[in-house]
Amino acid sequence: MSERYLSMEGIARHFDSPKGRTTVFEDLWFSMNKGDFACIIGHSGCGKTTVLNILAGLDAPDEGAVVVDGKAIEGPALDRAVIFQSHALLPWKTVLGNVAYAVSSRHRDWSRDKVRAHALRFIEVVGLKGAEHKRPAELSGGMKQRVGIARALSIEPKMLLMDEPFSALDALTRGTLQDEVRRICLQTGQSVFMITHDVDEAIYLADRIVLMTNGPQACIAEIVENPLPRDRRRLDLHKQPDFYAVRNHLIDFLVERSRTFKDALPPDYDRRHPPVVRPTHSAPPPPDGVRAA
Amino acid sequence: MAVSSGVSFGLRARALLVSVLLLGGFLLAWHVAVSGTSATQAMDPEYAKLMGMSATQGKSNMPGPLDVGATLWKHLSNPFYDKGPNDKGLGIQLAYSIARVSVGYLLAALVAIPLGFLIGMSPLMNKALDPFIQVLKPISPLAWMPLALYTIKDSTLSSIFVIFICAIWPMLLNTAFGVANVRKEWLNVARTLEVGTLRRAFTVILPAAAPTILTGMRISIGIAWLVIVAAEMLVGGTGIGYFVWNEWNNLSIANVIVSILVIGLVGMALDQVLAGIARLVTYPE
């Protein structure tokens, strides 16, 4: 594998309220290599978005640090692009204006024409050619999110951070955009860290799926390696032999173990090296077996 | 679409019709009310010369719509004559007032918008300046007049100062509110793109807060136009406010009514200018 690009080293985040201090999550350890696609799954309140904001540099951990490319994160940077859940387009700018704003922020010295050409290239990549002079209010939800993706890709980041990017879309649009994100990421070898609620989305897109227990004091329960082949396609995903093994494993976790995991920690559980599992149909992992693994 | 636009056109046409009918009814009632005669008293002819027409002929001193129309036409046909300090055309008087309002208003905008940015972007300055704003804001602008006249010693500059001080608050508060309430996600976009503070202020915060700022500017221009009339009544010399007071002293009610009408029309025009600019910077979400 290629070199380690990102690592979270024992990060924790507390929120102080009049009632006292709440620890959302603590002592998270996780690292990613270049070209990895990782998804994080967990229930609301486990701090997924906070983790992503910390990776983006929009928030800072109270303990621990995140190291990117050998340096601790000290704030937002252009090498990590964020695709926001609410797309966060600037409504007074056109599609082209929104993407060009990112491009000109990345390349301060570029001429107007060069910025424009670069922006148009990425608008074409996400399939919005012809809509570049529309304003966000004239676009459907799916098109808005495409602009958000084009904006993030246009700065050619080393890492793409996605906060439930497709959750506000209808099923059909979501599927199309998942296909495109997967195609683009495979083509460019993009490293991606993504939050999702959707188990099928995680199985389709991610190489590794991080399972977080319920908050407060959430922790990483285990890391699931996706057993499906790399050339998987969304439409026949459910026909893959290992699909139901991994799907059931994730669902079991969300339904039951995300709640109970902390009460009965596996004896050899190590926060620095959470157990890695690879559910396959030949060896369906019973919950006990997982803990022993 | 055709149906709905037909309906809205019908509504507009009917509203226009009602407006015209109301105006006609009002003018007619006004005409009838002032054209009647009341009983006259027998009086000494020498004394009668000193009395107005209401006493000698029973006619009302209040001009009717036709008199006001004639006066208005006289002003409109020659708006820019200048026959000395107390006899200038209506256009010249309005120009003086509009010039004072413009200068005071622009100065207020130059101070209020940057200061509003500072207050909106810095919670510290917001808290530190808040007591001053809360105390200064409710002061009637005319209460500043004696102080202004004493320190500035120039009536025109004093009235400009009064416009400045009354126009500044709505712009300041709206700018601060608009800047402080820019959506966090837009600011986060700028942060993840490593946009610097100054560029962020101009490319994200200013366009995002522009509709709110323009609302404040629109309120301010309305207040400024209200205040200039009163200020000019006090300081005198030139301007539409002075004109009204001068015509009151001349007992020329027709001129007073014409001025009232013109003040209303100019105020509406100023408001529409700001409304037009506001439409340009408003973005649909």
Topology overview:
The complex is a heterodimer of chains A (293) and B (285).
Chain A: E1 4-17, E2 20-33, E3 37-41, H1 48-56, E4 63-68, E5 71-72, E6 80-83, H2 95-106, H3 112-125, H4 141-154, E7 159-163, H5 171-188, E8 191-196, H6 199-205, E9 208-212, E10 220-225, H7 243-260, E11 276-277, H8 287-292
Parallel strand pairs in A: 3-8, 3-9, 6-7, 7-8, 10-11
Antiparallel strand pairs in A: 1-2, 1-4, 4-5, 9-10
Helix pairs in contact in A: 2-3, 2-4, 3-4
Chain B: H1 2-35, H2 45-50, H3 53-56, H4 65-77, H5 90-121, H6 123-136, H7 145-152, H8 155-180, H9 184-192, H10 197-235, H11 240-249, H12 253-281
Kindly describe this structure.
The complex is a heterodimer of chains A (293) and B (285). Chain A has 8 helices and 11 strands. Chain A is globular, with a radius of gyration of 20 Å. Helices cover 33% and strands 24% of the residues of chain A. The longest helix of chain A is centred in the middle third of the chain and has 18 residues, at 171-188. With 293 residues, chain A is α/β, with parallel strands linked by helices. In chain A, strand 7 (159-163), helix 5 (171-188) and strand 8 (191-196) form a beta-alpha-beta unit. Chain A has helices at residues 48-56, 95-106, 112-125, 141-154, 171-188, 199-205, 243-260, 287-292, and strands at residues 4-17, 20-33, 37-41, 63-68, 71-72, 80-83, 159-163, 191-196, 208-212, 220-225, 276-277. In chain A, the strands form 2 sheets. Chain A has a 7-stranded mixed sheet, sandwiched between helices. Chain A has a 4-stranded antiparallel sheet with strand order 2-1-4-5, with helices on one face. Chain B is elongated, with a radius of gyration of 25 Å. In chain B, helix 10 packs antiparallel against helix 12 (253-281) and helix 11 runs antiparallel to helix 12. Chain B is mainly alpha-helical. The longest helix of chain B has 39 residues, at 197-235. Helices cover 79% and strands 0% of the residues of chain B. Chain B contains 12 helices and no strands. Chain A binds chain B through residues 56-58, 75-78, 80-82, 84, 86, 88, 90-92, 101-102, 105-106, 135-137, 155, and chain B through 183, 185-186, 188-189, 191-195, 203-204, 207-208, 210, 281, 283-285.
